[in-house]
Amino acid sequence: MLLMTNSMLLPIGFSIERLYALKNAENYEREKVFLGPILVIILQDKKRSSKVASNIAMVSTGQEGALNYENVTRNIWESAGN
């Protein structure tokens, strides 16, 4: 194992991770995940420096989608200028 280089260890690491993920796929929906609450605690006090994220609500199809895309890009450019 000591003679293996990083380029040889990387695929082995991915294989181990995939095997672990497949083994635990059955329990995926029931497992507790703490990342969400941790991110909320970390990010809740941060002040947003721009309005870009609050202005993006995309409608993906048809004329409404095209108009919404134009509005979103306009808002992004305006926010970047401020």
TrEMBL record:
<keyword id="KW-0472">Membrane</keyword>
<comment type="similarity">
    <text>Belongs to the nematode receptor-like protein srb family.</text>
</comment>
<dbReference type="GO" id="GO:0007606">
    <property type="term" value="P:sensory perception of chemical stimulus"/>
</dbReference>
<dbReference type="GO" id="GO:0004888">
    <property type="term" value="F:transmembrane signaling receptor activity"/>
</dbReference>
<dbReference type="InterPro" id="IPR002184">
    <property type="entry name" value="7TM_GPCR_serpentine_rcpt_Srb"/>
</dbReference>
<dbReference type="Pfam" id="PF02175">
    <property type="entry name" value="7TM_GPCR_Srb"/>
</dbReference>
<keyword id="KW-1133">Transmembrane helix</keyword>
<dbReference type="GO" id="GO:0016020">
    <property type="term" value="C:membrane"/>
</dbReference>
<protein>
    <submittedName>
        <fullName>Uncharacterized protein</fullName>
    </submittedName>
</protein>
<keyword id="KW-0812">Transmembrane</keyword>
